[in-house]
C-alpha cells in the first residue's frame, strides 16, 4: 500500500536585482535540492526549479554547458534564461510512501522520500489550522485510526538555513570546486596519457559554421529543450563532419550517453508496461467485481426460491394441521355419540329397575292383603268356636250324667265334645298356630310394613329421583339435543369449511406443486448456475490471484531491476556529468585559446 505525501506544494521566491535567486533564500525554503531548469507546466514561459530531476533528461542542450560548482545561483539562473522576471514558483513533487504492516509510516521511509524532513501534518477540509500526525518514535500513526482521504504534508527541517549563520554552503561549494578541479586535472592526465592530440585545423575550416552553431545553440538553449538522442546524434554527426576520428574517450563518452539514453527509454518502456499491467489488473478486478455481482444476484435468486419453498412447506404443514384438526373433530364427534349411547343405555337400565321395583311393590301389597284376609278368617272362626264352647259348658253341667236319656245325646255330645275337644284342641293348636302365625304374620306384617314403609320411602325417593332424573334426563336430553344440534351445525360448518378449505388447499397444493416443480427446476438450474458461477469465481480468483502474484512478483522484480538500473544509470550519469563538465571546460578553454590565436 502506498501513500501520497507532499511537501509545501509551490512557493513563490523573489528574485534578486540581477534576476537571480539568492541561495540563502532558496535554502531557507528547501534543503539540499538537485537543480535543473525546465519550463513550468502551468506557465510555459515561466521557468521553475524541479527537485530530484535529471539534468541530462531535462536539459540535454546543456551537455556542453554544465553548471559548475562554485558558481552562484544567480549565475546559474542567468545562464538558464535571459528573461527578466521578478519571482519564480518552485514546487516539490509528491511522493508515494508505502505503509508498513500496522498501517503506519516509518521514519526511515519518510526520510528516504524527503531527506531533511522533521514532521508531518494535514488539514481538514474547510479548516485552515494545521494538525500534526502522531509520532511514536519510530513511525507516524494514522490520525483517528484511519488515513482517510486527506492530503498530508511534510515539514522540512530548519537546521541547514543560511540565516542561522551555518557556513556549510560555502564549505560545500569550496569542496565541490576542489573536487571539480581534481576531476578536470584527472581528465587532462587521462587525455595526455592516452596520447590524444587535438587537431585545430578543422576549427579554422569550420569556424563560421561552429560559431553560428554555437550562437544558435546558445539562443535555443534558453527557450527549447531538444530530444537527448537527437542532441547526441547531432554532437556525434558534428564530430564526424569535423573530418577526424573520435578518440576512445570521446567514443566512450558517446557510448555512455547512448547507454544512458537507452536506459531512460527502457525505464520509460518499463513504466508503460507497468501501467499496462496495472490497467490489465484493474480490468481483471472489474471483471471479478462483475462476477461477484452476478454471484450475489444468483444468491439472491436462490434465497428467493428458498423462501418460496419455505412458503410451500408452510402451506403443506397447514394442510397437515387442518387434516389433523378434522381427524380430531371426527374423533370428538364419535366420542360424543358414544357418550349419548351410554347415557341412553343407563336411562333404559334405570327404567327397567323402576319397573321391577313397581312389580315387587305390587306383589308385596297382594301378599299383605292375602295374609290380612286369612288372619281375619281365623279370628272369626276362633270367635265362633269360643262362643260354641261357652254355650256347651252350661249345657253339660245342667245335663249331668244321670240323664241317661240324653246319654246318647250326651255321648253323642261327649263324642261331639271329644270331637269338639279334639276340634278344640285342634282349634287351640290351630289357634296357637294361628296365634303363632298371627304373631309371625304380625312380625312379618311389621317387617313387611317396615319394609313396605322403607319401600314406600324408597319408592318415593325413587319416584322423586326418577322424576328428577326424568327432568334431568329431559334437561340433559334437551341440552344434548341442543349441543348435538349446535355441534352438528358446527360440524356441518366445520365440515363445509374444511371441505372448502380442503378443496382450496388441494387447488393450492396443485398450484404449489406446479410452482414447486418449476421452483425445483429453477432451483436446480440456479444451483447449477451457482455452481458454475462459483467455479468461475474460484477460477477467476485463482487466475486473478495468480496474475496478481505473478504481476506483483514480476513488478517487484522489474521494480528492483529498474531501481538497480536507475542507480547504475544515476552513477553513470554522475560520471558522465563530471566528464561532460570537464570536456566542456576543456572545449571552452580550447575555444578561448583558438580565439586568442586567431585574434593575434
TrEMBL record:
Taxonomy, superkingdom: Eukaryota
The cross-references to InterPro entries, in alphabetical order and at most eight, read:
TDP-43_N
Q: Which Pfam families match?
A: TDP-43_N
* Parts forming coiled coils: 267-367, 413-572
Q: Which CDD domains match?
A: NTD_TDP-43
Where is the stretch described as Disordered?
202-226
Q: Where is the composition biased (Low complexity)?
A: 213-225
Q: Does the keyword Zinc apply?
A: no
Residue ranges crossing the lipid bilayer per the database entry: none
**UniProt keyword annotations, A-Z:** Coiled coil
What positions does the domain TAR DNA-binding protein 43 N-terminal occupy? 91-155
Q: What is this protein called?
A: TAR DNA-binding protein 43 N-terminal domain-containing protein
Q: What is the lineage of its organism?
A: Eukaryota, Metazoa, Ecdysozoa, Nematoda, Chromadorea
